[in-house]
Amino acid sequence: MRVGCGGALVNAFQRNLHADLRQFQQGIRTFDSFIAPAFSGSPAGVDRALAASAHPIWPEAAGNIAFDWADGDTAAVDAAFDAAIRGGGHVASVRLHDTRVAPSALEPRAAIGQWDEATQRYTLTASTQGVAVVRRLLAEGVFRIPPSQLRVLTPDVGGGFGMKVQAYPEYAALLFAARRVGRPVKWRATRVESFLADTHGRDGMLEGDLALDATGRFLALRARTRVGIGAYVTAFAAVFGTNNTKNCLSSVYRIPAIVIDVTLAFTNAAPLGPYRGAGRPEALYLIERLIDQAAVATGMDRVELRRRNLIPAAAMPYRTPNGPVYDSGEFETIMDQALALADWKGFPQRRAASERAGRLRGIGLGCFLEVAGGILDETVELRFGDDGTVALHTGAQPMGQGHLSTFPPLIAARLGIDPSAVRLVQGDSDLVPAGTPSVASRSMMMAGSAASMACDASIENGRRVAAHYFEAAVPDVEFAAGRFRVKGTDRAVGLLDLAARARTLPDLAPDLQGGLDSTAKFVSPQMSFPNGCHVTEVEIDPETGAVAVVGYAAVDDVGRIVHETIVEGQIHGGIAQGLGQVLGEHVVYDEHGQLLTASFMDYMLPRADDLPTLRVGHHGVPCTTNPLGVKGAGESGVAGALPSAVNAVLDALAGRGVRELDMPMSPSRVWAALHAGVSNRGH
């Protein structure tokens, strides 16, 4: 709405506005002076825990070190750095704060514990990311009972992001109480309890050095990470704090030598658990910041520096020095598509328009490659019912991935039946095979591949059953469009009809007593490697420090796309969580271990209007190591958003002399950096 007013009123309004602005700026300084000493999740948190004078959290852990780990050829890396220095090359270095964040699932954890005296069995109903691992941890690790004496049920899950994969102490307490009082016991976490007791994510210091020769070719990478794992060790902390980060360090680039040193440190904070990306964004954030720093040091264009070092498609399969062997990827094509989608060439005009309006504008890109799959085996069962349906029994647990939209059409297409005839059985440890929870972007890659193998096994069983039914030779039975037919005849039977008939067919071979039912286990020879390039564009108000994301373009290679809407939803969600960490998400403890960010009044979550329209493109290069050709899509949004957004903010601030600024890039911290005129390292 526009309102006309006289000059005197305008002048009075301006005077009041300027007074309010001065008060706001003073408030920022007051806020910073209050909050600065309290950043236990900041560099001081991990560094303080590892300081020689630190109070031990556990007497058994000297120096508060939970785990010290290294990987790589140190001699080769040292030689490459020496060669860079002697040969007129360059060394870029960064030290980055990876802020501690709260997963903040829409639905807080909740559970019901029950005890059945007659069967001597426990039943736990809880929102988990996979019933099998929770059952095993509780049965074997807590109650010391056979897993068969504990049933775990998981209905719908309102968000997980890695946080709900754990077997939490509350679950054990509920089961114990249910047996003690002889009745079901229910518990639901409040939001404050979620902030206090749910596992958190990220939290570390990332240090890296990148050696380049005089022409800008990468020679070696040296990475050091210090991860604050909280006061207790979770089941997966050592995995995502070490291997997940290590496996992503080469990203999409030729880096001949890589070494990494990791220290997991106990801190006075909630335990650290897997959180969307789980160690992968840390590696990608580190390498992408190093490349931007190297571009400044060498005077090279940041896009061209990346292009010079991208692994070419012709090099596939490509063995990296840090271990993984990439089976496929077209990294330069993807980068070019992302730059075009973001209108990179038109950015100078947009920046000039922002400057005329008194704003700072920046653009950043982040190329990435992550590993997907986690534990590389998965078992599913295919069971045919008398009602003309087929049920897929899988331990993969949906929590927003849209399994109902992906698995039934996959099974239906493979078997030549209607998707409405396919049922999913999941979330019940009595009915699903033991397997891995839904983590590591693995559901379609692992459970989907196993399901396709189960379909093939059922079809082969069907050919043998049909041969028996028609009194024909097995090689004479063909299968197409959901029907078995004796070649050259009109004798045919539908797959579902045959499955029902098989229940009563006499004289079937012993291994066909289950009819067309099948069990399949897929063992992947290696991880898959989702990759992409994301471009973030931001505009900053220098008077307030507020950062607005005004453009976002992403091109991803997730292999073969099974359901495009589901894939794009996963990418959108990952982008939102990556931008959230950049713009303000930060779990803060004071120096006494008191949590200061225990509600959404204190902990910033991005809202819908914080994000622009997300432009997403796809360039799928099929994976060659699983039957579906998929690569995973659940975590790539974070991998692209985090480095590209930080690079964009720093690009906007560079004209004001700010070259370094750690997350979160909140208004107070951006404003302070601008007005200090020097780098602000997160206290």
Descriptive report:
By secondary structure, this protein is of the alpha+beta class. It is built from 18 helices and 22 strands. A five-stranded mixed β-sheet has the order 1-9-8-7-2. A four-stranded mixed β-sheet has the order 5-4-3-6, covered by helices on one side. A four-stranded mixed β-sheet has the order 12-20-21-22, sandwiched between helices. Helix 16 packs across helix 17. It is globular and about 85 Å long. The N terminus and C terminus are likely disordered.
Topology:
Blueprint: H1 7-35, H2 43-50, E1 65-72, H3 74-86, E2 90-101, E3 110-116, E4 121-126, H4 131-143, E5 150-153, H5 169-181, E6 185-188, H6 191-197, E7 201-212, E8 218-230, H7 237-241, H8 243-247, E9 257-266, H9 280-298, H10 302-309, E10 318-319, E11 325-326, H11 331-341, H12 347-356, E12 360-369, E13 377-384, E14 390-394, H13 403-415, E15 422-425, H14 443-470, E16 477-480, E17 483-486, E18 492-494, H15 495-501, E19 518-523, E20 531-540, E21 547-557, H16 564-583, E22 614-618, H17 636-654, H18 667-676
Parallel strand pairs: 4-5, 8-9, 14-15, 21-22
Antiparallel strand pairs: 1-9, 2-7, 3-4, 3-6, 7-8, 10-11, 12-20, 13-14, 13-19, 16-17, 17-18, 20-21
